[in-house]
Design goal:
The protein is an alpha/beta fold. The protein has 14 helices and 20 strands. It starts with 18 loop residues before the first strand and ends in a 5-residue tail after the last strand. The structure holds nicotinamide-adenine-dinucleotide.
Length: about 500
């Protein structure tokens, strides 16, 4: 199989390729640099300064200064909201530029960035802009001779670390609520996708958000990311990424004890009962696993299908997978772009081999698509047992495992037999079954007769284990960035 269409890098304006600390665009103190690669062509897009502990320290100091003495925390809350709305307006006026940049840097199909990432980014920012003047405390009646109330105040300096699969969206899930609450932030985007967050930093300054409120230092995790986590000036660490790194972060943070949110991985079950609308289920199961080339934390990578429809469903899934267009992310009709890197390509192909050697049936795909670029064809395995490696571990590529089940009890048992707990889907036309099974599936998000939808207004996160702790999004996420402080005022009069 070959990639369709020419892989021409279109002219895209790059943001300043420097570290944003305060209002300055800086080189790394060490003078070191790294390259960001276009995954569709394997060509270098830009060379950027590589931050380490020294740069992170400067950024945390800038964020601390902006928190303690800058106007952000103390300005009227409605004014903070207006700043965030201005940033949203600027994003809208740079829409095509943001979309092209995100598509280029992450190898993401441009149509999906336009349809999904960009609107979600702006919606998230506008949603939290609206919260600025609505983050209220409580008066708690304790006794008649006291006024006792709970204040909500910003936690301080937030350290954000995000992955490369939805670079700007994942960053915004952290930045928007943190800034709305009055916090300041040091954001460390993944080294694979540094560009869109730098553009956001540039626009934030243009929107009048005070310098130091948003500092952006893309770079490698083991140096820059680790330094951010253990910096004593960071009050809150909010991380999205792999369970392995999430666990390291929890350990490292033990020395300084910041508040922590960890949005980690998934191996989500998508359960299809024999009374479901099969066409709709097959269509959504296909998108549910192959969207963004499977590089999605909530990808429905374990499709559980009831025995009586197992073969028919597999045929539908294979037909749909075969019809997906693999190609240049620059083409509007591309569905699957490349994987993010050579490392990810090797990892995914390694899992395919493992699936075959452990006895699963490779029904479609499973191979690299002729390059350049890190393309893999959509891959369907059937006759997968839930104990096989491809059903247990997060592949983070376009690989689906179709697993057979006999009845409702077995479906729930298989679905919940996983170290992950991020999301799950179920397909049935039986109303009672829909609600019963939805409550039994161990997942932070359950989709019924649909798959993969998220919204800024709904909380997002796993129920523990390798899916992490805490929640992004919704009103709930504001708790991440605010402290609740009790105030006791003595009302007793002197006699
Ligand atoms: P990763 O853990 O390798 O990297 C994520 C981020 O952490 C990057 O910015 C990276 O530079 C940084 N990092 C790496 N090592 C670090 C260290 N030692 N200390 C501090 N920071 C470090 O993950 P990835 O491969 O980039 O992303 C894929 C993972 O992210 C998958 O497991 C996926 O499920 C998960 N993810 C989860 C969600 C969610 O909402 N739950 C969303 C997107 C992705």
């Amino acid at each position: 199989m070959a990639v369709t269409g020419a892989l021409v890098t279109t002219a895209v304006r790059l943001p300043p390729c420097k570290l944003l600390i305060g209002e300055e665009w800086r080189d790394a103190v060490s003078g070191k640099t790294f390259e960001t690669i276009d995954p569709a062509t394997e060509q270098v897009i830009a060379t950027l300064p590589e931050p380490d502990e020294q740069d992170i320290d400067l950024a945390v100091r800038a964020a601390r200064d902006a928190f303690e003495s800058g106007p952000w925390r103390t300005m009227r809350a409605a004014e903070r909201g207006r700043h965030l709305h201005r940033l949203a307006d600027l994003l809208r006026s740079h829409e095509e530029e943001v979309i092209a940049l995100e598509s280029l840097d992450g190898g993401k199909p441009i149509a999906s960035v336009r349809r999904q990432d960009f609107p979600a980014v702006v919606d998230c920012l506008e949603y939290y802009a609206g919260w600025c003047d609505k983050i209220t405390g409580d008066v708690v009646p304790v006794r008649p001779d006291a006024l006792t109330y709970v204040l909500r105040t910003p936690v301080g300096v937030v350290g954000g670390i995000v992955p490369w699969n939805f670079p700007l969206m994942n960053a915004m899930w952290k930045i928007a609520p943190a800034l709305a609450a009055g916090c300041t932030m040091v954001m460390k985007p993944a080294a694979e996708t540094p560009l869109s967050a730098l553009l956001l930093g540039e626009l934030a300054l243009e929107a009048g958000i005070p310098p130091g409120v948003l500092n952006v230092l893309p770079g490698p995790g083991p140096t820059a990311g680790a330094a951010l986590v253990r910096h004593p000036g960071v009050n809150k660490v909010t991380f999205t990424g792999s369970p392995a790194v999430g666990k390291q972060i929890m350990e490292r943070a033990a020395t300084t004890l910041p508040k922590i949110t960890l949005e980690l991985g998934g191996k989500s079950p998508n359960v299809v009962f024999d009374d479901a609308d099969l066409d709709a289920a097959a269509k959504a199961a296909t998108a549910g696993v192959f969207f963004n080339s499977g590089q999605v934390c909530s990808a429905g990578t374990r499709v559980l299908v009831q025995e009586s429809i197992y073969e028919e469903f597999n045929e539908r899934l294979v037909a749909r997978a075969a019809a997906l267009k693999v190609g240049s992310p620059r083409h509007e009709d591309t569905y699957l772009g490349p994987l993010i890197s050579q490392r990810q390509l090797d990892r995914v192909l390694g899992y395919v081999q493992r699936g075959v050697s452990e006895g699963a049936t490779l029904r479609y795909g499973g191979a690299r698509v002729d390059g350049p670029g890190y393309f893999v064809s959509p891959t369907v395995f059937s006759e997968v047992d839930n104990s096989m490696t491809i059903a247990r571990e997060e592949i983070f590529g376009p690989v689906v495992s179709v697993i057979r089940f006999a009845d409702e009890a077995e479906a729930v048992a298989i679905a919940n037999d996983s170290p992950y707990s991020l999301a799950a889907g179920l397909w049935t036309n039986d109303l009672a079954r829909a609600h019963t099974v939805a409550a039994e599936l161990r997942a932070g998000m359950v989709w019924v007769n649909t798959y993969g939808q998220t919204d800024t207004r709904l909380p997002w996160g796993g129920l523990g284990g390798d899916s992490g702790v805490g929640r992004d999004l919704g009103e709930t996420a504001l708790e991440n960035y605010t402290d609740r402080r009790a105030v006791w005022v003595n009302l007793r009069r002197r006699s």
